[in-house]
Structures are given as C-alpha cells and as structure tokens.
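User: I'm writing a tutorial on reading structure tokens. Could you give me a worked example: one chain, its sequence, then its tokens, then a sentence or two explaining what the tokens reveal?
Assistant: Sure. Here is the example chain.
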Amino acid sequence: MRKLIYSMTVSLDGFIAGPDGDIGFSSPDEEVFRFHTQRVAGQSGQLLGRGLYETMLAWETVDQWPSAGEAEREFARIWLPLPKVVFSASLETVQGNARLVRDGLAEETVRLKEAPGKNLGVGGAHLAASLTKLGLIDEYLMFVAPVVLGAGTPYLPGLDQRLDLELVETRTFAAGLVYLRYARAA
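And here are its predicted structure tokens:
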C-alpha cells in the first residue's frame, strides 16, 4: 500500500500561513527548492485542498514567467504531469492534470492508497487535518522556518486527540530551515 505523506513549510510556532493568509515566509531558497523538487519527483500523485490547489495553479503558466529559471522549469516539468486530486465542495472545475472530488474523502483516499505506484503527497492544513482524523496519513514532513508568526493557519488545525509520531529523518539547510520527517507511531 502506498504511503500518504503530508508536507508543508511551517513557522517555529506552528503556522503554515500568517493571520492574513501570507505564506511569503515559506518561499524556499534554491537548496530547499531542489529538495522539494526531488521529493515531488518521487510521488505518484498529490492530494490538495482548495486553498493549496489555487496557490499551485500558478505553475500552470510557468512558461509565461519571464524570470523562471532552470530550477522552476524543472519543478514544472515534474509538477504539471503529476496527477492531482482536489478535494473541494466549493470549486466548480479544476485545471491541468487535476481531478475534482466533492465528497467521499475517506473512500477516495483509501482507493488511491491501495492503487499501485509510488507514494502520494498531501498538502493543505484543513485537508491534512481531516485525513489525520481518519487515520490515513502515514508521514508528516515539516520544513520549519526560522520565523515566529504569532497567529495564522496551524499546520494541523482542530485535532481532537493526541497523535503519537516517531522521528524518522532530520536535515538542516544552510538558510536555517529544518526538515523534520515523522511517521505515525506503531
């Protein structure tokens, strides 16, 4: 069975976005960007909530970015063909290599995990919280940025119970970002 891996950049105090939705603090430097590109290249697909899907839509037009460098183009070559499943009751349509799912989160996610292929990524705090409550996320990746936001969107909003994890891997990047990879405790 494929693993479902939740990954987001997070402030030191646990937020993926500031109180106004700003995610500027999470813009990766070249070293971190290449790490993300390699990680995404190892996936069979990506599950997204509406908010992250809308943020990532910018990659659909990377060929029109005058400042796009080779690193951005390399990511786009991997991201654009990657199958994406967008879970949203409010969206009418999705673009690119994405498929919209309005309901049946648990059933669709289990079906995807049971399909052959490489692991699946998941992004978006609210989607990840729902999948965590359902016990469907296998690993949690945090890219902890050296910033304190004070408020905003938490990495995992609204969990009802404790979640025990085991540290699997760490890495510190030159710019001070710390990568933490956790698996659900057995």
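What the tokens reveal: The chain has one domain: 4-184. Strands lie at 4-11, 15-17, 45-49, 84-87, 98-101, 120-123, 139-145, 153-154, 165-172, 178-184.
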